[in-house]
Amino acid sequence: MSKISSIMFMTLLMTFLKCDLLLAVESHIINAEARRFVSDIVYIQPGDSVAWINMTSHNSVSIEGMIPEGAEAWRSDMGDNYQLTLNIEGVYAYVCEPHLGFGMVGLIVVGEPVNLKKVREVSLKLQGPYRRILGKLRKLPATQ
Ligand SMILES: [Cu+2]
């Protein structure tokens, strides 16, 4: 292979590798529209990130026992946009505290919903407006 064609080959190879990396990690937008998250249920792959936007007067708070084991709980600051990268597979439930009573709750499914059974169990013990999460869980396919 001549020097020029080997340089061209390497450039081409690197372009493909870069494209691969770009495809591998995705960012998913969750739009806070009035008093709901759009989409309220997002399906992503491990290593992807989610970004909440238009969070004026909203927050995002994970629910204890309703995220996969080993995953970190979160609580975003009121009114601030927020971004998270999720590496651990499973279902994550979260709420907007000020608008919980309006059903402003959401689910993120990372890869396979491996903890769905546990999340459903915990959801049965939810109190008051937190019970709005139950309705969201019913929308998930009953795989487990
Ligand atoms: Cu809200």
Characterize this entry briefly:
With 144 residues, the chain is an alpha/beta fold.
Structure description:
Strand 1 and strand 2 (36-38) form a beta hairpin. Helix content is 26%, strand content 26%. The protein is elongated. The strands form two sheets. Strands 2-1-4-6 form a four-stranded mixed sheet, with no helix packed on it. It has a four-stranded mixed sheet with strand order 3-8-7-5, with helices on one face. It has 144 residues and is of the alpha/beta class. The longest helix is centred in the first third of the chain and has 22 residues, at 3-24. The chain is built from three helices and eight strands, in the order H-E-E-E-E-E-E-E-E-H-H. The chain has helices at residues 3-24, 116-123, 132-138; strands at 27-33, 36-38, 41-44, 49-53, 61-62, 82-85, 90-95, 105-110.
Largest sheet: 4 strands, mixed
How is the largest sheet built, in terms of strand order? 2-1-4-6
Structural class: alpha/beta
Report the CATH superfamily: Cupredoxins -  blue copper proteins
Average pLDDT, rounded to a whole number, is 90
**Would you list the SSEs in sequence order as H and E?**
HEEEEEEEEHH
* Number of domain modules: 1
Rg over CA atoms, rounded to whole Å, is 19 Å
**Level-2 CATH architecture:** Sandwich
CATH class: Mainly Beta
Kindly state the number of beta strands.
8
Report, as a whole number of angstroms, the end-to-end distance.
55 Å
**DSSP strand content:** 25-35%
Alpha plus pi helix count:
3
Bound molecules: copper (II) ion
Overall body shape: elongated
